[in-house]
Amino acid sequence: MAKSLVMAVTMFVGTADADPKKREQVKTMLARTVNPQEVDAMLEGQVPPANRVRESPTFYNNAPFAVGEVVKMVENGTLHVYRPGEGKPKVVNPLGVLNVPKGRLVDNARYVNLFSKRQPFKYETPRKVLNFLREKAYIASWDFKAGYYRILINPPFRKYFGIKVGAVYLHYNALCFGWSEACLLYTLLTQEAAKELRLRATFPVSCYLDDGITGSADFWRCLRAMNFIIKVLTLLGAVFSLLKWHLYGRRKRDPRSGS
């Protein structure tokens, strides 16, 4: 999706209704970097007070990967670098690495999450796929690469998503892994795309975060569905990597049947 989309991405409501377990986790995290007597004061008010938290050990343990990812994100505009005299982010969250060895940078935004309004929502479940996929059917699937980084955070809120790498301060310009609202917003946007596909076509579509799937027992029907999806997603701003896409039908061999 186009990276020009700007969202007002959060509503801070304070910590009065925060999950007690998560509150204790945040208090433990804060106690490592500030005076224990100051911890309770940092959880008061409607918006997160200024705070600086050290990077996660997983960042240093995977430094070559982590620093390389940060450099890429600075180059593509996902991260903003604070220059000398520009100040610092209001909140600096710990930056870590998950899913090693593949690796993913995660902004540990638990402190900010505690002040955010909890908004329950439901994902589409794999069970929906079973309603339209049958054995030996053809499927067409797609996924958005680095989807979170295509959706920009409303500028006044970016100062709450700061990080520090060495002596350099940065903040996220786009959605980041680790922020509780990011999943909700991304799901709402992808569901809009799925809704558009369902309204304008006669084939089923199921979406889960950045993945989508459709299918049919009829090869040509599935091919038409795939072509239509390409057109609609392109109009919405998607750019397809033709080197990674299989734009032709193929059937996987079933090892059980030998066919």
TrEMBL record:
It comes from the Eukaryota. The chain crosses the membrane at residues 228-247. Pfam families: RVT_1. The keyword DNA-binding does not apply. It comes from Klebsormidium nitens (Green alga). The keyword Transmembrane applies. Residues 113-247 form the Reverse transcriptase domain. SUPFAM superfamilies: DNA/RNA polymerases. InterPro entries: DNA/RNA_pol_sf (IPR043502), Hepadnavirus_pol/RT (IPR052055), Rev_trsase/Diguanyl_cyclase (IPR043128), RT_dom (IPR000477). This is Reverse transcriptase domain-containing protein. Keywords: Membrane, Signal, Transmembrane, Transmembrane helix. Residues 1-18 form the signal peptide.
